[in-house]
Design goal:
homodimer; globular; alpha/beta; six-stranded parallel beta sheet; three-stranded antiparallel beta sheet; disordered C terminus; 360 residues; 46% helix
Chain lengths: 360, 360
């Protein structure tokens, strides 16, 4: 894949959940049939950890069960207990095997270089005040790079650059725990506290965006965040729209992930500073203006709405490519605005949030 | 489309030819059914010119009939005569309407700026000694650019840069004639001479790559080139492989066009300095090396053969994107080598050609 920046992998818990009719859950793990070829597979906390250690992502996730919506209290509690047992097994397997990550040897060696360099510039701090964890850029491409005679000094510099917070320990992967508990705020509190007891490098709020109303999502996030430590990354999984990202960030969420920008792009739904644009509409057939006049991405700098509409209507591969480039640019711009707003301080954060937060 | 460099459009003659079962040819023009929606259309020399003037490409082509292969002498001659009548009508329509090209007004104004600039640097000459025509970079994007507040000085500079040969006339589109005559060398000679009599800015050799053996293609090109003026661009339509490009360039061909690099890329067939690579093959599943160790393109610099094979096997859009980028880079590199070889002089041209030309 040759991605030179941080990578996060999910454990497969949510992905198996989405195969509702093809799975069977036991305490040991999940048996499911592939939607691609019908083949049978078994995932357990241990196999999910082994896969993620083998892939070598920077952040990996505990194996969890995503509770369906709606679910009664007994079912929600049983599901939460299962996720907690799996969290302990995930942590144990990770602690026993984390040295097996493919880039561990290279990372350890380089770590001392990075630490020395950083000791002279300890004033640097994260833009996100609450995010104090160390996220190493892995050296996963080193072997491939070596065969191509790339410049090792440049690779070294990039590696060091991507560890701005590195100070006190040799890097390995960071394992995050996942809080479940459905829409029940009491169970969310219990799940959060017991997940923290097990102890992880960061904490995710899972089991949202599963069909519940958006206002309910916000309430669960707000109630759960209270019980998560502010000095560890707090990550809401599977959200959201640009407005939701701004809103949740203003509540203290550090990380989010979502297929929305790329999936919507492939279906011609584009996010702009002036709202959503469905580029397939005939109204854009003669529109010579840029997709978003306030966007600096290379799609908006170069192409007209009429051309983007033509590409989509003609089913051109380039439609998917350009639409995806724009939506990802728009999301990155949104996060840049969020970080800038946080830098400016608490007051600005609230004014930014007020644009999308429902009035009481 | 926002393509900032030279654009060439074909007249539709060959494209209609490829719809063999759906067309009816008369002296007036061609009636055909769309393979997309079954709708009926009529193309004539006049309508083909009107379309190409409206599109505003830098080089446009006369409307011709591509003679099928095989064809007897009577059929080949009748087809050639039809193409000659259509060439005259194409030329007449173009002369009467060439001022209607959308960028004409902007081009005329800018032309004086460009001419002044070039007067001080008249020592510049084309790398291709035989290519003396003026190919203007059109100003077709000016309106769109203006609405985006782009830097006009920068656009002006780019515009001037792309007219390196401009010296003596106000630019408009360049209309090329197309030589037909099937595989009959006598008819090819006659077609060339009578097309030159009509008079065009450049001359194309059409009706090749229609199923004939490659050696026959080379013979027809060689025999036809003799009758085309060396001080106008000579363009072989619809070829070819990298080896053919080198071979035909060494024979004096200035221009070629082909879908091969992009179509082959979409089917996983990649051109490299070590020969063709069918990236779908299982032998590449674990191959961590670059696609082409001698290629500087961003695909070869970043990705492994194993990754490219995975993308193709998974039917990812990115497979088409990366494969196309590489094949186009390889073709551009091939043309760069050809130009460099021509710059080095006649001897070098022959040594370059000897790599692919059959020994007598």
């Amino acid at each position: 894949m040759a991605w030179p920046r941080a990578i996060l992998t999910d454990s497969g818990g949510f992905q198996v959940f989405s195969l509702n009719d093809l799975r069977k859950v036991t305490d040991e793990g999940v048996t499911f049939r592939s939607h691609l070829d019908g083949s049978s597979h078994f995932y357990s906390p241990e196999s999910a950890m082994a896969a993620q250690i083998g892939l070598g992502a920077d952040i990996i996730m505990a194996f969890d069960e995503c509770t369906e919506y709606p679910a009664d209290r007994a079912r929600t509690q049983a599901s939460m207990e299962l996720t907690l047992r799996w969290a302990e097994r995930s942590k144990k397997y990770f602690e026993d095997h984390k040295h097996e990550v493919p880039w561990k040897a290279v990372a350890s060696e380089r770590w001392s270089v990075a630490s020395d360099a950083k000791a002279q510039d300890s004033s640097q701090s994260s833009v996100l005040g609450s995010q104090q964890t160390k996220i190493p850029r892995s050296a996963r491409n080193d072997n491939a790079e070596a065969t191509r005679n790339n410049n090792n000094n440049e690779a070294e510099a990039r590696y060091t650059d991507h560890w701005p917070l590195a100070t006190d320990h040799c890097p390995t992967q960071s394992l995050f725990g996942i809080v479940q508990g459905g829409m029940d705020l009491e169970l969310r509190k219990e799940s959060a506290e017991r997940t923290i007891e097990i102890g992880f490098a960061g904490y995710a709020i899972g089991g949202l965006s599963v069909g519940e109303p958006r206002e309910r999502t916000r309430e669960v996030i707000e109630a759960t965040l209270e019980h998560l430590p502010a000095d560890k990354p707090r990550y809401v999984m599977g959200v959201g729209t640009p407005e939701e990202i701004v809103e949740y960030a203003s509540m203290g969420v550090d990380m989010m992930d979502c297929v929305l920008p790329t999936r919507a792009a492939r279906h011609g739904l584009l996010f702009t500073s002036e709202g959503k644009v469905s580029i397939k509409q005939a109204r854009y057939a003669q529109d010579a203006g840029p997709l978003d006049p306030n966007c600096g991405c290379r799609v908006c700098q170069r192409y007209s709405r009429a051309y983007l509409r033509h590409l989509y209507a003609s089913n051109e591969v380039l439609a998917q490519v350009l639409n995806t480039l724009h939506n990802l640019s728009f999301y990155l711009d949104t996060m840049r605005r969020v970080r800038h707003s946080i830098e400016l301080g608490e007051e600005s954060r609230f004014s930014l949030a007020s644009r999308s937060r429902p009035k009481p």
